[in-house]
Amino acid sequence: MNARKTRAPGTIDRPLTHDPKNRHPKTPKNQAPMTPSLGEPSARSIDTLAPHQNRNLEMQLMPEALARAHMQQRLQEAEHERRSIHLRNARRLQRRAERASLRARRALAMAVMQ
Q1: Residue 108's Cα: distance from chain center in Å?
Q2: Would the CA dihedral through 71, 76, 82, 85 be positive or negative?
Q3: With the C-alpha atoms ordered 45, 47, 53, 59, is the resulting torsion angle positive or negative?
Q4: Is the Cβ–Cβ distance between 24 and 14 less than 8 Å?
Q5: Cβ-proximal residues to 17 (8 Å cutoff; 6+ apart), any chain
Q6: CA distance linking residue 48 with residue 39, whole number of Å
Q7: Per-residue 3-state assignment (H helix, E strand, C coil) for 38-57
Q8: What gap in Å lies between CA 68 and CA 61, rounded to an integer?
Q9: Are the C-beta atoms of 17 and 10 separated by less than 8 Å?
Q10: What is each CA distance from 79 to 61, 85, 91, 103, in whole angstroms?
Q11: In the 8-state DSSP scheme, what is residue 12?
Q12: Contact 21, 28 (CB under 8 A)
């Protein structure tokens, strides 16, 4: 039988790639992973990391802010539309009342003249 070794697909830390530039050197199994000690400052200090994190957070929140602004604009437009409809109805009712008042005056004048 022809037994072939099957390799597990790459992991997040070591992606499977055939490009020699991107291959990681193999570490011996008994070597511990490198972790920065607690006393040493990291390569990126908190001061340099904070603006980057803020920028990423702002970028992630942009669609939410845009949707909020859009909804605010839609609410303002709806409120403006309601006000204009209310004003139009008020003006129409005022004209109707003025016409009724003129009719009543004419009727009163006709009744007095007879």
Answers
A1: 65
A2: negative
A3: negative
A4: yes
A5: 10, 23
A6: 18
A7: CCCCCCCCHHHHHHHHHHHH
A8: 11
A9: yes
A10: 27, 10, 18, 36
A11: S
A12: no
The one-letter amino acid at 29: K
Residue 30's SS3 state is coil
**Cα radius of gyration rounded to whole Å, the chain:** 39
What type of residue is 15? P
pLDDT in single tens digits along all 114 residues of the chain: 455 555 556 666 666 666 666 655 555 556 555 555 555 555 555 556 666 677 787 778 888 999 999 999 999 999 999 999 999 999 999 999 999 999 999 999 999 998
pTM for this structure? 0.43
Q: CA-CA distances (angstroms) from residue 29 to 9, 17, 32, 33, 73?
A: 19, 21, 8, 10, 61
Token digits of residue 36: 């920065």
DSSP H or E run through 90: helix 46-113
